[in-house]
Amino acid sequence: MPNPKRKHTPSRRDSRRSQGWKLEVKSLATCPQCGALRLPHRVCPSCGYYNGKIEVAQKAAKGEEGKENK
To answer: Tens digits of per-residue pLDDT, 30-46?
Structure first.
């Protein structure tokens, strides 16, 4: 098995190791219902719509719940 003839410098070693920590930028899509940013192929967290249909019912705010019961 081949062995290196000379020792690699620390800068060469460190520059090779520095490439593993990079993070990927997540792609975002806009919701056609409300225009908020969301991950593609997922339910919109702000309005609950996916593919033109409501998939998740949104909870009412605490102040609005008391008004509905009265």
So the answer is: 999 899 999 999 999 88
User: Within 13 Å of residue 11, how many CA atoms lie on the same side as its CB?
Assistant: 0
Q: Number of folded domains in the chain?
A: 1
**Residue 53 CA to its chain's centroid (Å):** 22
The whole-angstrom separation of Cα 17 and Cα 3 is 20
Q: Which two tokens stand for residue 39?
A: 């991950």
* 48 part of a folded domain: yes
Model-wide pTM > 0.70 = no
User: Where is 67: in which H helix or E strand?
Assistant: helix 62-69
The closest alpha carbon to 56, from 46, 64, 48, belongs to 48
